[in-house]
């Protein structure tokens, strides 16, 4: 997911991503369809991305290859 901008919908739990190429947003796609109230995202020192939820959950986002 390196280079992917990630955002989520608090109410639906859906997480989306896109990339910027030559100043334009491209490759917009739904990454996760959950029932969690995602409040924010974070990244650790090794580049792993995490989603945080309203109820204190921390979930590592993993690329599905």
What does the model show?
The protein is built from no helices and 6 strands. The chain is globular and about 40 Å long. It has one domain (5-61). The model has no long low-confidence stretch (mean pLDDT 90). The strands form 2 sheets. It has a 3-stranded antiparallel β-sheet with strand order 1-2-3, with no helix packed on it. The protein has a 3-stranded antiparallel β-sheet with strand order 4-5-6, with no helix packed on it. The chain is mainly beta and 65 residues long.
Helical stretch tally: 0
N/C terminus separation: 10 Å
Envelope shape: globular
Q: Residue ranges: pLDDT <50 for 5 or more in a row?
A: none
Structural class by secondary-structure content? mainly beta
Could you name the key traits of this structure?
65 residues; globular; mainly beta; three-stranded antiparallel beta sheet
What is the fold's blueprint, element by element?
Layout: E1 5-8, E2 14-21, E3 24-33, E4 38-43, E5 49-53, E6 58-61
Antiparallel strand pairs: 1-2, 2-3, 4-5, 5-6
């Amino acid at each position: 997911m390196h280079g992917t901008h990630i955002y989520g919908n608090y109410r639906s739990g859906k997480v989306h991503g896109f990339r910027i190429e030559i100043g334009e947003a491209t490759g917009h796609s739904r990454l996760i369809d959950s029932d969690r109230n995602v409040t924010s995202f974070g990244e650790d020192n090794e580049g792993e991305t995490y989603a945080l939820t309203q109820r204190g959950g921390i979930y590592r986002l993993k690329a599905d290859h």
